[in-house]
Amino acid sequence: MAGDSRFYRIEIEELARSFGLDFYPVDFEVVPPSFMTEVAVYGLPVRMPHWSFGVRYIHQLVQHKMGHSRIFEVVYPGDPGVAFLANNNSDMDNTLVCAHVLGHADFSKNNELFRRVHKQVGTRIVDMAANHARRIEQAIERHGQEHVEFVLDAALSLEQHIDVNQSLSRARYSDTEEEDEESLLSTFVRRFVALAGEKLGKDSGEEEHAGIPIPPHPEQDLLWFIAQYAPEMEDWERDIFLAVREESFYFYPVFACQIMNEGWASYWHARLLREASFLPQDLYVDAMKTHSDVVRPTAGDNQVALRINPYHLGFSIWDRIIEAEGVEHARAIMQSEDDFSFIRNHLKADLAEDLNIFVYDANKNGEIKVTDNDIHLLHEAILGPKFNFGAPRVRVTEMGVDGALELKHESDVDGRGLDTERAQKVIDYIHRVWRRPVTMCTLDANAKETTLETGKAAA
Amino acid sequence: MSPESHDRPAIVPSTRWYDLFSRGARDWLRHNEKVRDSVKKTLPELISGPDVLTQPENRTVRVPVKFLEHYRFRLSDSDTQTGVGQGQGAKPGDVLRPADAGGEGDGGAGTGEGGVQFVLEFKVDDILDWLWEELELPNLEPKSTRSLENSEYVREGIDRRGPRARLDRRRTVKEAVKRRAIQANPIPFTDDDLRFRQLSRRPQPMTQAAIIFIIDVSSSMDDASRQLAKSFFFWALQGIRRQHTRIDTAFIGHTVTAWEFSEEEFFAVRGSGGTEASCAFALSLDVIRDRFDPSQYNVYVFYASDGDNYSADRDASRDGLKDLAEISSFMGYVETVGRSSAGLNTEMGRLFKDLAEGDTAADSYALSGNEDVWEAIRRFFTQQAKQED
Predict the structure, then answer these.
(1) 3-state SS assignment for residue B135
(2) What is the pTM of this model?
(3) Do B218 and B354 share a domain, yes or no?
(4) Do residues B226 and B156 share a domain?
(5) Residue B313: partners with Cβ closer than 8 Å, 6 or more residues away
(6) Which residues in chain B (76-115) have CB-CB distances under 8 A to chain A?
(7) The domain containing residue B61 runs over which residues?
(8) Are A362 and B107 in contact (CB < 8 Å)?
């Protein structure tokens, strides 16, 4: 019996639970492909309007028309979860997609990072984003498109610059230095200081006690800092910054667990379909064909791809773990890790060799050369683009008495300076809402220290 | 399994809000609007760009523009980008792709969306509107000069007397009906019922214009010079078009003799030999007398040349220009000059200078590059606006 679903939804859910998958109910909605395209662009079914999404939309549309990408499903974790299925999926596609979605639902309900973020942004992310969009539409009516646009120009360009280790509803810095330092003393720092002969690197001098500097330590959550401390920002403008920040909090675990999460969902759609005795044989064979399309590493046989398919990589790692140590052990990993530890702990040299993964250098002159397949270099090359939400590390270092904002790029950590032309444009965006001078310290193309500035009165 | 998921239909097929509009399309349109705004800010390049012009009759111009980039902090490009790949048989040291033959290539790492171009179409009228804003010109009224008045009869009011030909039957019957309604034994019509349309003579301002474009096609005028002249001619024509309900044009090219051309031939034609401008001025005079009666038309004459003219032709040219000036509203001279030469200090430049010192409305423009076209157009329109007052 297929139940009320032509894609065995109920049977697959039952089977999934029997394997220990633990998920909130999922609402499935069938939508046209055009809707899937938009979701891929906006990240959320309803999101604030901004012209930059229009550019991405056209790119996506062109790619779609050329047949480069096809989106089967998009799932939003929550209680209930919401999954959108493309209405041109076949029943067989949907059977596979249903199993895949349950894998995601299991992951997002149990993974520590997802849980922590969901505790803060709530479990109805789709509604939250729609709410933000509505508030921004209202702001446009009240304050005009141009004005709202330049606030969004700034806020969205700083999308990745948040600090997920702090709470979403983080309060302003406390007024007294003592209290502040107390909160900075993580267990690690306390233990470190307790070690013989170790002191905190910074020996806070007396003059700091005279007035607490803002920020008291370099601040990485730029959206939060600007919303809290901008000297002349209007309340509705701060609201927009906080709305963008809230959506970034939601996006972070999706970003930081992509390999694990897609691998986990792929593992379970394959496993569940394999174990599903209720599926007709031909449907199973078709579904497995789609499966191998989704998780294949390269475009064709014997080809070399210059990127890693996260579905394939994650799937392969989970397959090894479960084969060697069982589902229970895998679930413990799924609950407590993110991509950083997952890759470093579980992508072992023998698996990397079996998967033929390598590190390459792409030279400006067009040459692409395989450089290495050492496992540690592989780990770092895979994780490199994922650090700090994929953005350069930029911190607020000081807010002057005149309200001037000082930003610093940690070029020593990132290994080189910022693209100064773009950085200048970004601080111009910031200046329009900060409304006092903004400076940015980084390295220029010749690795010399340079300071970009905007809003300084002409000398 | 949660109990309610059994009750809920598995799929909800329905027409939903997202069918009603496309957010992607909305944001894309907004992006294009912003592109238009930013293009507007680069108006000088827009109107003098060599790609802009096709035929002067085209009412739109196509401008290649870039996607706007929403900037973010990004690391500077390094010489080599490290990535991770996958595939059988790739060993350390293998070259997957050789360096480009030409050295600098598009590089391994993509540069994002910054470099993509697409084409936007602009209405010439929109560009002129922007131009007007930019130049802060008053809105030009349809142009007329007192001497160029054309009177016309217009209907004006009704009277009880008039020639039979202008009897207004409708009103006459109306009057009769009114009268009959209050009379005991009415007769069908009386003389008092008759109503006649009245006409009065009213001066009608002239809004026709004729533009004579003259170009020196001798061998010394190269393609770049023609392109410059063409740009200027195009925008001058568009501007004049705004002030006149009807525009007629004539295109004349000359070496030591002059011919009239069609518009298409005009910019393509190539002559050889020397330069005697007087023959072109004489031909222009003939054209104006034949087709554009100066009492009916505002006549504009534009002449483009590199400035050379046989000195033996000097007097003939001077006389020709003087004759033309007498019947024209405006005389414009466009000199296309090499970068090094001092503009307008040429044989022809001096002739026009003399002309402008009289009380003729005349001006000269030296064009050595695309950026000068903007300046020249600005000067021409500003001067036209001043003449209004």
Answers:
(1) helix
(2) 0.72
(3) yes
(4) no
(5) B275, B276, B277, B278
(6) 76-100, 103-109, 113
(7) 23-71+115-135
(8) yes
